[in-house]
Design goal:
This protein is mainly α and about 70 residues long. The chain has one helix at about 1-70. It is rod-shaped. GO terms for molecular function: protein-containing complex binding. Its main location: cytoplasm. Belongs to the BRK1 family.
Amino acid sequence: MSGVHSEAIQKQIQQDWANREYIEVITASIKKITDFLNSFDMSCRGRLAGLNEKLTTLERRIEYLEARVSVA
């Protein structure tokens, strides 16, 4: 009976290690995805800020041109 019990415990330990390894792989994958998304977010924010500056400049130019046309 002791041998059967010992085998059952070994099987549980092996399953536990397999589960831990699986969880570690999943956790590492989630971290990689999170890092990518954070990097993508920062990249998009930078690009959107640049576009916002360009749009603001264009809006100011249009307002200036409209003011010159209405004066003339």
